[in-house]
Amino acid sequence: MARVCLRLADMRAVKWLGAIAAAVLLQPALMPTAAFAEWDYWITNGASKVAKCPGPHGSYVKLANADGKWVYIDGIATCKDVGANYVFDIKFLKVSINGTRSADIVRDPINFDWLGLAVYWPKPGQQRIDWLYDEAKPIQGSLRNRPDQKIYFGNLQFVVPKAVTDQATRFSFYLMAKGIPFVFGAL
């Protein structure tokens, strides 16, 4: 399957709409403005550990999302220092339904269409985000709303400039399911 990357501006628009949709569907009382919704969603749900790689031989990085979400996400990536950049190779990512949240899921199946990495930080004194790096790759997979079902993704690579990771306070991988973001990070 040919890989096609979305332009950074297009993916930000998709993420922004997904964050708004999630805020509207999941927490309508907390969304006073669209800018606040984007800021609040990505700051609240984004992973705060900024992954940095130890050397050119690489190391394994465990990936997972927070408990209590619609789906459980866990996997393994390798992280390599390649001069001016870090390379993150997602070896595998397992996604399964959280049985305690199954009744809350209205989409059946959940259709995943993008897997991305966003590196960012909140602008001081503002409710805005400074997106330092954001890349999403197309994927395709469906997960039925049954706790015994699993879906796997892998063989996806992100090359992130070291200068970007040095500025960042948030480092979030995300799966998109037709506009709904599922955020996970490095442990």
Explain this structure to me?
This protein is of the alpha+beta class. It has one domain. It has three helices and nine strands, in the order ααβββββββαββ. It has helices at 8-26, 34-45, 162-167; strands spanning 59-64, 71-81, 85-97, 110-122, 129-143, 150-153, 156-161, 170-177, 180-186. Strands 1, 2, 3, 4, 5, 6, 7, 8 and 9 form a nine-stranded antiparallel beta sheet that branches. It is globular and about 45 Å long. It starts with 7 loop residues before the first helix and ends with a strand.
Number of domains: 1
Distance between the termini: 30 Å
User: What is the radius of gyration computed over CA atoms, rounded to a whole number of angstroms?
Assistant: 16 Å
Structural class, please? alpha+beta
> What's the tally of helices?
3
Mean pLDDT over the residues:
80
Helix content: 10-25%
Strand-residue proportion = 35-45%
Following the backbone from N to C, one meets helices and strands in this order, namely HHEEEEEEEHEE
Overall, the morphology is globular
Query: Low-confidence runs (pLDDT<50, min 5 residues)?
Result: 1-9, 19-36
Number of strands: 9
The major beta sheet can be summarized as:
9 strands, antiparallel
